[in-house]
Every structure is written in C-alpha cells, then in structure tokens.
Amino acid sequence: MMTAKVLGADLNIKILNILKKEQLTPEFIKVNPQHTIPTLNDNGFVISESRAIAAYLADSSPNGEEIYPKDIKKRARVEEMLYFDIGRLYSNFIGTYWRLLPLNPGGALISPIGHKIIILSRSII
Ligand SMILES: N[C@@H](CCC(=O)N[C@@H](CS)C(=O)NCC(=O)O)C(=O)O
Predict the structure, then answer these.
(1) Distance between CA atoms of residues 24 and 110, nearest Å
(2) What's the pLDDT score for residue 10?
(3) GO molecular function: any one (predicted)?
(4) Atom 13 of ligand 1 has which residue's CA nearest to it?
C-alpha cells in the first residue's frame, strides 16, 4: 500500500477481514492458493508476497525507478534490505511477537509450515 501510494498507482482495493477468515473463501483461494494478504491481481496476473508486489508495481510504473532502481548495484542495495526484512527481521518479529498478541493466540492467523511446503512444491514442479 505504501509503495502504491508513493508511485501514485491506481488500485482497486478489496479488503478482506482475516479475523473473519475471509481469505479462506474458495473464490480467494482460487485466486491465491496461499490465501495471503496482500495479493495483487493485475488483469489476471496474480502475485502475492508484499515485497514482490512492491517490486512489480515499481517496475510497472513510469516513476518506479526512484524507489526500485534499474542500476544493478543500486537495485542490489534495495534487494539486500528486502531480503534482510523477509529473511531475518520479519521472521524474527513474527516468531517473537506475533504469537503474543491477544488478537492472535498461538499464531492462528499464520498458516502452518505444512501448507507452505505444499505451496513451494507446487511452484517448483
Ligand atoms: N510474507 C508475506 C506474508 C503475508 C501474510 O502472511 N499475510 C497475513 C496477514 S498480515 C495473511 O494473509 N494471513 C492469512 C493467512 O495466511 O491465511 C507478505 O509479505 O506478503
């Protein structure tokens, strides 16, 4: 959402309430079998993972280079932080704090590892 705002991207936003498990409807699972939010549907091209969505939006936007440079060394610096975020910061945050939130006892809003392995195996076969 922040990336879209910075880029001035015109999004048709649909909000799903994960506390009501609206991401688990057959309609949404058909669009994104990982049933994660955010999900971008660009005229039938569906992509999940917020960092990949942000990169796609930037690459699709005329002013995207400001935040996602085409120069490979500058882009590598951006990606370094994106990978740091998903690989170390975010996962530690989730592992440490998310399960403590009263909103989410036991990490119930995070799908179990088994489901992620199924998604991974589907994408490499
Ligand atoms: N690494 C993913 C995480 C996406 C994610 O787990 N989103 C949560 C909400 S913050 C979600 O959709 N949970 C519902 C579910 O997994 O069923 C990203 O950055 O997009």
Answers:
(1) 12
(2) 92
(3) glutathione transferase activity
(4) 36
Cβ of 109 closer than 6 Å to ligand 1, yes or no, is yes
3 lines ligand 1 (CB under 6 A): no
- Tell which atom from ligand 1 comes closest to the C-alpha of 24: 17
Band (109; pLDDT cuts 50, 70, 90) = low
Domain interval for residue 36: 2-124
Cβ neighbors of 9 (< 8 A, separation 6 or more) are: 3, 57, 60, 61
Phi, psi (rounded to 5 degrees) for 69: -60, 150
| Beta strand residue intervals within 34-103, DSSP E | 39-42, 45-48
| Domains of the chain: total | 1
How far is ligand 1, taken at its centre, from the CA of residue 77, in Å?
25
The CATH code of the domain that includes 92 is 3.40.30.10
Report helix, strand and coil shares of the chain as percent, to nearest 5: 60, 5, 35
Give the distance (Å) from ligand 1 centre to CA of residue 71.
30
